[in-house]
Design a protein that fits this description.
Blueprint: E1 4-7, H1 20-28, E2 31-34, H2 37-46, E3 54-57, H3 63-75, E4 80-83, H4 96-104, E5 108-111, H5 118-125, E6 132-137, H6 142-152, E7 158-163, H7 168-179, E8 183-188, E9 196-201, H8 202-212, E10 219-223, H9 228-234, H10 237-247, H11 251-262, H12 266-278
Parallel strand pairs: 1-4, 1-5, 2-3, 2-4, 6-7
Antiparallel strand pairs: 7-10, 8-9, 8-10
Amino acid sequence: MSGQLFLVPTPIGNLNDITERARQVLQDVQLIACEDTRTTQKLLNLLAIKTDAQFISYHEYNADKMRPVLLEKLSSGTDIALVSDAGTPLISDPGYRLVRDVLDANLTVVPLPGANAVLPALQLSGLASDRFLFNGFLASKKSARRTELESLKNVPATMVFYESPHRTIDTLVDMLDIFGDRPAAVVRELTKKFEESKRGKLSELISYYTQNGEPKGEVVLVVARADEDAVAQSFDINALLKEALKKNKSVRDAVDEVTKTTGLDRRKIYKQAIEIKNE
């Protein structure tokens, strides 16, 4: 019988955030694949988790070499836990390639829920949470970062980013320039002693950190969604609908196409499509 690959979240700060299920898996598996074996062994010691598992380093720089090794072990019946240094594997982490290959080999992947910075930051921001986009880390170089932000300025969803402390002010400045002065939050050190959430317009956050110094620790930026009217003004909805109606046999298909392109409210697009059709 083949083994199973368990995706095991580890605490991002507060050790009490380890789940009982994660404890059990880490005790029972035969192999633990981790970014840094020393970090994971130290964590397990702090959590008083006793295991006879072998520790193998699996990270961005050795992933191509180690994936076949891990696949072979799974195929031969070894249960493996994949962990990151902190948080949920695969979130801003290259582990998805291993998961993809395991699934392609018709082997079993078992994801465990647990600690991660994205959702707590979204909750603390006070911004709309019904639709959000996690964008991970932006590019470190200014020109590439601005290009990424330009591609996101019309996204009709709250946006969540990871950022390094020393780039936070520069990133906020670029966001203000490209997005406009939207509500946002800088959330840092989640679940740790100095956890903090600063909320305000982008301009207010820039002013605060310029005066008080860059934030320290692990930083998550949360930015309000694009204003729908502003997004609508950036598209010629009539032209898009007329073109879609020419290509599609039904109003529904045309509306689906334009809604997907713009991200705007489907009901408004449908109403506009009916008006055009009746004309």
